[in-house]
Amino acid sequence: MPAISRRTSDLGTENAFVVLAEVNALARQGKDIISFCIGQPDFHTPVHIQDAAIKAVREGRHGYTASAGIDELRAAAARYMGGMRGLTIRPEDTVVAAGAKPFIAYTILSVTDYGAGDEVIYPNPGFPIYESQILANGAVPVPLHLREARDFAFDPAELEKLITPKTKLLILNSPQNPTGGILSRKDLEAIAAVLRRHPQVWVYADEIYSRLCYAEKFSSIASLPDMYERTIISDGASKTWAMTGWRIGFASNPLLAPHFVRWITNTESCASHISQWAAVQAIEGPQDEAEMMRASFLERRDLIVGLLNEVPGVSCRTPGGAFYAWPNVTEACKMIGAADSEEFRKRLLLDHGVAVLADIHFGSRVPGEGQHIRFSYAASKDAIAKGVARMADMVKKGNP
After folding, report:
1. The whole model's pTM is what?
2. In the chain, how many domains are there?
3. Are both 279 and 308 inside the same structural domain?
4. N or C terminus: which one in the chain shows less Cβ crowding within 10 Å?
5. Sign of torsion, CA 180 80 144 227?
6. Residue 320 — φ and ψ, nearest 5°?
């Protein structure tokens, strides 16, 4: 048989979807599974957004669009992103893609050269696609460790130690997946001060959870002096308006926007025409339901953090944003005789019907930080209460 490429065989994945497949298989066998593994809102897309999509279909708006996106959505996204960040963003500097995820690859492709030893610094633990796309596109991944004592931010001095003449890109994610940590304005000012000493470094600001901040007002590094020009702002419709399957993301940078358009032409051609019109309505229409969803996530956050901190051997910091909890289960692993968080996760799923993700699904474990698992609390309060109770029961029973 013909062989596949090493690039393909080594390509990483997003384990939330792998575990989701396990969950679905168990459910088909009749198992009672409470799932916290997938990071998507459990709400329906608001009706006025659905209606905009139906209207687009009825009006025949279902052919190709320009690769950059329809003018109406580029303008709406530019106003939306600029308004949240105190910037004036031009529509021509804003590009639409099939979700925000493609912009990770498009950015790496645009600022690094394959096999040249160009380095990309990325958060660890972090969204697993960062590392897999860095490697697949021939750059060198350099993990920047997030610290529990800093509520899963990082020390800017550690960042500066990692920057070399080969560093081309820094990836920031705030609010963050998987920890729910946020970078405060004070954090971002310190990071910007470091970056001003290294003008060759681009910044990819993954801000898909920008509307889901709880501890303080959302801040973007692009808002700081001299930073927008070198920052790729990445945002989208998925999390704010419960539109994960609609696949609409948007990004902005004055220099890179036309290069992103060429990458889109070479890959996806354009985002869904129908979904683009729905996203226009999402941005420009009523925001009541988006605010309701945010308020619900905040209530669920407070519920799950409180319950997790009552489980023996578990401690959980209060996440500042997104809809993820990242409890430390180091002592709980010892109590049940689990070698690590991955064994803990498997036993929780197979023996107790609760699906979570382990820290190793988000990069290598940070030295000295112990064992963690991730809950997506985009689930009902009842599911949260039952799921954490099952985990507590497993820990209390100890080593079988």
Report:
1. 0.96
2. 2
3. no
4. N
5. negative
6. -85, -15
